[in-house]
Specification:
Shape of chain B: globular
Strand content of chain B: 25-35%
Distance between the termini of chain A: 85 Å
Largest interface: A-B, 37 and 42 residues
Radius of gyration of chain A: 26 Å
Number of helices of chain B: 3
Number of strands of chain B: 11
Helix content of chain A: 55-70%
Largest sheet of chain B: 8 strands, antiparallel
Radius of gyration of chain B: 16 Å
Distance between the termini of chain B: 32 Å
Strand order of the largest sheet of chain A: 1-3-2
Shape of chain A: elongated
Order of helices and strands of chain B: HEEEEEEHEEEEHE
Order of helices and strands of chain A: HHHEEEHHHHHHHHHHHHHHHHH
Oligomer: heterodimer
Helix content of chain B: 10-25%
Number of helices of chain A: 20
């Protein structure tokens, strides 16, 4: 693993002195905190088993290295923390009281550099190191009852976090659903100090909020808990602007953004999340992320297929000509890539080019013997290639053979 | 921000949740004593959900829960098997996706939207698509999808859904049961319910 230059930069600049006060040890101390940790472990296991966690050891190594640098810059034990990515295009990140951090692929895919990532991770680490879940639990004695009500009644109301379903009545719900304004502000401030101590450009922290506010305005998204609870997005952005304005050292030592390192380590997230965006019908976001991935991996067949498929299924927002071009490109690079045959075959079939569609539809069925939508494709093929009359189905006027 | 009014409830298929919801509904309804929750067990008389404009037969040994506006049936309890028939307007918001099923949409595309929405639902862990085929329901074009998934508690659920793409809306008939033992045991009952479905015009909201 490469040395973490921002941490070194922070030390050189001597900005560690501006870091947060010494935090408490990341271990449960009281009976109720032991209970909370057990709930956190149960939740962690449920999430990790859900099939929604992205399995990518290289990416995890990178994310853990960022967290380790942030921890080391503030005198914390790096191995108290670990990060996993949840395959979810919504914009969220959260920390469990035991130091496990989760970041959604949707959030990661919208970031542009390591400083932005560090601002989110440092914020989440603070929730753990400053025992925000415990404080939140103690301040809400009827919490379990409230949560049971949420997990029961939310489906009726039709508005809930899927992760609260995973959660059931776990007391760690606040870790996901957000804390009070005071605790969120504390996490912003301490997170900012850690980010600064680690040598990152803190101007990137409010930039995350600006990117996300624009995204939220464009899409009717689920409430992104990391950004959307108290204080509101604008307030959160102002928190960081205030901290940056008060930082006299920024003018001479703005810190590092880590764009290249971030882009290399997280490129695959663009491909994975781009597909999630496409399947969720957020075609603009999909287009943006997939083209960014293509720039990082110009030889990728899969990304050509996904960009083409996104244009094909986007309806009036799509571009069938572009779809066709990219799908043909994908197949020119790899003729055995079944999904591109399917997409191109359906595109041509629906454009009425039955003779051109048939070879692609047939090839798709040959290549993907277990395709779940085989029956639809076979029906299209029947229309492309009508079955010739059987030899014995002669016209009625023809005398029968003796 | 998500709006409550436009939220579709199509995805809410977990038995635990359904049982709790219905249990809560029973208590609330009993409390206000205006509408008595009842179980209809008459399998000889077709059951019509007036708000849906859909009629179905209750399989022998099953019971319909009323006054739920959908056609909701079980044999041994919602935790063990549930059939729910409902109807949605085209363009209705579907949970976990910005895509909607629209009038005139190809059956394959509509099926893919629902499967993608299922796959994005974090209450359905490790979703597997068992089958996805075109289907005809009461003379209407549509599709049949079958999936398995695990609940957050680890129970494997098997779900089969037929969707009829009708002129004015789409009708969904779903059968949900634990994969082990129960789904197969009663799947024929579900297929007979679907065979017997009568889909009329969507009643106007005033009526």
């Amino acid at each position: 693993m490469r040395a973490h230059r921002p941490a070194l930069l922070g030390l050189i600049l001597g900005v560690v002195a501006t870091a947060s006060p010494a935090v408490e040890n990341l271990q449960p101390a009281t009976q109720d905190e032991h209970g909370l940790w057990q709930e956190a472990v149960d939740l962690q296991n449920a999430i990790d088993r859900s099939g929604f966690v992205l399995e990518d050891p290289a990416l995890e190594t990178y994310l853990n290295s960022v967290v380790a640098a942030l921890a080391a810059a503030d005198g914390l034990a790096a191995d108290d923390f670990s990060v996993k990515v949840v395959r979810d295009p919504t914009l969220n990140a959260f920390a469990l009281p035991n130091g496990r951090l989760y970041i959604h692929s949707g959030l990661l895919a919208r970031m542009l550099n390591e400083a932005q990532l560090a601002s989110v991770l440092a914020h989440e680490m603070t929730h753990a190191t400053h025992r925000h879940a415990l404080k939140s639990q103690r301040s809400r004695k009827t919490k379990t009852g409230i949560l049971q009500a949420i997990s029961m009644s939310a489906p009726i109301a039709g508005d809930y976090s899927p992760l609260i379903d995973i959660l059931g009545s776990y007391g760690t719900a606040a870790a996901i659903s957000g804390y009070s304004k005071a605790l969120e502000t504390e996490a912003d401030e301490v997170g900012w100090q850690r980010m600064r101590a680690c040598g990152y450009d803190t101007a990137e922290a409010p930039a995350v909020f600006r990117v996300l506010m624009a995204d939220l305005a464009e899409h009717e998204r689920k409430e992104p808990f990391f950004f959307g609870t108290h204080p509101k997005l604008v307030d959160r952005e102002k928190n960081f602007e205030r901290l940056n304005a008060a930082d006299k050292k920024r003018a001479t030592a703005p810190g590092e953004k880590g764009e290249e390192r971030f882009a290399q380590a997280t490129a695959r997230v663009l491909l994975i999340n781009g597909e999630l965006e496409m399947r969720a019908g957020r075609h603009d976001a999909a287009r943006d992320q997939l083209w960014r991935y293509r720039a990082a991996d110009p030889a990728s067949v899969r990304v050509r297929w996904l960009i083409g498929e996104n244009e094909r299924i986007a309806g009036p927002q799509g571009d069938p000509a572009e779809a066709r071009k990219l799908l043909e490109e994908a197949l020119a690079m790899d003729e055995t890539f079944a999904p591109a045959h399917r997409s191109l075959g359906i595109l041509l079939y629906r454009a009425g080019e039955l003779a051109a569609a048939a070879p692609h539809l047939r090839r798709f069925l040959d290549l993907d013997r277990t395709a779940h939508d085989r029956a639809y494709i076979e029906a299209y093929l029947d229309k492309c290639e009508p079955t010739p009359p059987a030899p014995d189905s002669t016209p009625a006027s023809t005398p029968a053979s003796p | 921000m998500r709006t409550h009014a436009t939220r579709a409830r199509f995805h809410t298929g977990i038995h635990t949740r359904l049982a709790l919801t219905l249990g809560l509904a029973t208590l609330l309804l009993a409390g206000c004593a205006t509408v008595e929750p009842t179980w209809v067990t008459d399998s000889a008389t077709p059951q019509t959900a007036k708000k849906l404009g859909v009629t179905a037969n209750i399989p022998p040994g099953w019971a319909r829960f009323t006054p739920d506006p959908d056609l909701v049936m079980t044999k041994d309890g919602f935790l063990l098997q549930t059939i729910r028939v409902t109807r949605r307007d085209y363009g209705t918001k579907i949970e976990n996706t910005d895509r909607t099923i629209t009038r005139g949409m190809e059956d394959q595309d509509a099926a893919q939207i629902l499967l993608d929405a299922f796959a994005a639902d974090q209450t359905r862990h490790n979703l597997q698509i068992v089958s996805n085929t075109p289907a005809t329901i009461d003379g209407h074009a549509g599709f049949r999808i079958e999936v398995t998934y695990k609940t957050p508690e680890g129970l494997t659920i098997h779900e089969t859904a037929y969707v009829a793409l009708v002129d004015d809306s789409y009708v969904i008939a779903r059968y949900t049961a634990p994969h082990r033992h129960y789904h197969e045991l009663h799947s024929l009952d579900f297929e007979r319910v679907v065979e017997g479905l009568k889909i009329g015009p969507k009643p106007s909201k005033k009526g």
